[in-house]
Structure formats: C-alpha cells, structure tokens
Amino acid sequence: MSELSPPIQTDFDFDRVIDQIEGEIPGPHLIFFAGIHGNEPSGVWALRNVLQRIRKEKIPIRGKVTALAGNLRSLQKGKRFEEKDLNRLWTKKNIAALSKDNFQPENEDEIELAELFALIQEIIQNQSGPLYFFDLHTTSSQSIPFIPVNDSLINRAFAQQYPLPLILGIEEYIEGPVLSYINELGFVSFGFEGGQHTDPISVQNHERFIQLSLAFAGSCDSKNMKVEESLKVWKEEYGYFQDFYEIFFRFEVEPESEFKMNPGFKSFQEVTMGEKLAISGGKEVHSPKNTQIFMPLYQAQGRDGFFLIRKTPQLFLSLSAFLRKRKLDRLITWLPGVQWASPEKDAMRVDLRIAKFLAKPILHLFGYRAMQKSDHYLIIWNREWRSRFKDYQEEDWYQV
C-alpha cells in the first residue's frame, strides 16, 4: 500500500477492464467497480495500485480478481455523469430491456450501462467459484469510510468483518443502483465509501478495503494483504462508529431547484431538532429531530440532498435473522390488506388504509424493504429468498 498520500490523479487512460488477475488455484471471483460516478476516481487508482503490487510481488492468488471502470466517458471529464446518473439506471425496466436485447441507449450514460451489463452477464455465465461484487465510491462531503449494505443475511455476515459503520436501508430511497440489481441475483454485493472525492486519504482507504476483501474472501493470504495492519488502523480511527445504522429519511432535491447545503456538515455528525441544514428552492430546511446526518450534498450534480440515520439495535438484528431463517415472512400475507405483488412471491402490496399497523420497522424484521407508491399503498420486496446461500456456505466467513 502507498506509504504517502499523493494528490489524486485525474488523467485516465484505462479500458473498461482496468486489470484482471487469475490464480492457478480455483477459488472465488471478486469483481470491483470503480468510477461509476466519473468525479470519484480514487477507487480506480486504488485498484490499479493493489493489483499492480500483486503482480510485482508475485503474490499467490486463489480464483480471480476483476477491476472494472464504471463510467469511462465521465471519468475522462471528471464529471459525475453526462445526462443521467449511471448508478440510477439499473431499474427493472432497463434490465428487462437489456435482457431481451432490445435496449436502445439514448445517451452516453446509457451506452455505459449496456456495456457494463454485458460484462456482468459474461462474468455470471462463466462463474466457477463464489462471486463477490464491490462498488467503490467517495462522497462530496468529508466523511469517515463506511459500507452501504443491501439488507440480506449473507451481506451482513460478510460486511461485519470490516471494523466500519454499516448502513442499511439505502435501497428504499434510491432506485436503480448497480448493486441493487446484483443483490436481486443473490450474490454478496455491497458498496464502500472511502472518504471525500479529492482527499488523498480516500485512495488509501480504498486500498485497505480491496486488500481486506481479498483476504476475507480467501483470495489472498492475510499477511500479504496486510490485514492486521489495516484492521488496527481502522479500529483505532473508526472503531467508535463500528455499528449498524438505518437510513430513515432522505431529502430529495427537486429538478431545477437550487439547493445549497449549509457548510461544514460531515457524515455521522449529530444534528439537533430544528437545526438549519440547507436551503432548497429558497426555503430553509431544518432537522426534524435529534439524530445524525449522512452524506450531505456538496456538489452541483445529484438529487440526494442529505440523509438522516440512527443506530440499529443488536436485538433487532438478531430477531430479524431468526425470523428470516425460518421464512416466517410468508405469514404476512395472511394479514388483511396484504397480498402478493409478483408471481415469484418476492414482493407484496400493502394497502395502508387497512394494514396501518404494518410499519416499516416490522417489515424490515422480515427482510422486506418498501417503496412508497402512493398515499394508500406500498410495494415491499424481499431479496433474502434470492440469496445464493449454497454458493458461500463452505466459506470461512459464512455464519448465516
């Protein structure tokens, strides 16, 4: 890993596949995305650095490691995206069109989507060992590193190996990220936010995450990946924040609306009820309660003004694991106002006029996440049953 923190480079001469290394011994296949947003280059450089070190030092590897550049065109320009956010394009509609080979890209970002989709399909079709997908990002505000996790038991089990805050629930507020699509396929997959966009420390954090991931998945030896050193550094610097957190509020920036975050906010910073957080459309935005702010927006592009989070009690996590393992979610459809919303029985429709008692925290226990469709009903879905438990049950980390 780099001893110093040089400025983040901005000149790109990468292909879609930044690098790929395959070992002589069969094993897992780790796929890293970096630069899904073109103004977040640190993950790209970290992947190059780590994989080059593996080659240079001839470090033995099991299975395969693939490093993919996300939005190549935007990376070259240092822009988040051209016309549409690539990390919001992985919707069910777009995936269905891509799967039927009748997707017609209308802009450069959608061309990137089609190219990445084809690569992911190729990787899945040629799967030998268990697959792991990781998406490397940075934030516009100052932040400690953290891991956004789509809430499944296999994701929880693997992600708990990192001594960092783990964020649940983002899939309820953001439609179309690449990892939500991959989670629906049942693979271990989650994101990593390494810090602020232009902070050189973000590159180091990404390097640590990549090396820890290779060791945790059994691709590389822990000593070669400097696991002990990285865990010590992260525990000392971020151990206080090591916990599960739940997103419970998102402030959406309306199109064409001028938004300005008050200066100085950082992720995980405590805010008080009534505290002024931002100005949007000429009106002040205040915190609705005493809580913690998360990912405040300090860039021109993007519609996620800020999120609010709270800690998730361990009792809740243990109870939810108990309920999910026994598939007790099927009992929910016996309740008035609830019915299946898909032939695969992975989604339910909840009529809020009848099932007022079925609050989000109860649904979360059973592994369901909700998308508000109107004032009267929710569509809730469960990715737990899609999880490929058998792919991972022989792995050292598996504790589901």
UniProtKB/TrEMBL annotation:
<keyword id="KW-0479">Metal-binding</keyword>
<keyword id="KW-0862">Zinc</keyword>
<dbReference type="Pfam" id="PF24827">
    <property type="entry name" value="AstE_AspA_cat"/>
</dbReference>
<feature type="domain" description="Succinylglutamate desuccinylase/Aspartoacylase catalytic">
    <location>
        <begin position="26"/>
        <end position="212"/>
    </location>
</feature>
<keyword id="KW-0378">Hydrolase</keyword>
<dbReference type="InterPro" id="IPR050178">
    <property type="entry name" value="AspA/AstE_fam"/>
</dbReference>
<dbReference type="InterPro" id="IPR055438">
    <property type="entry name" value="AstE_AspA_cat"/>
</dbReference>
<protein>
    <submittedName>
        <fullName>Succinylglutamate desuccinylase/aspartoacylase family protein</fullName>
    </submittedName>
</protein>
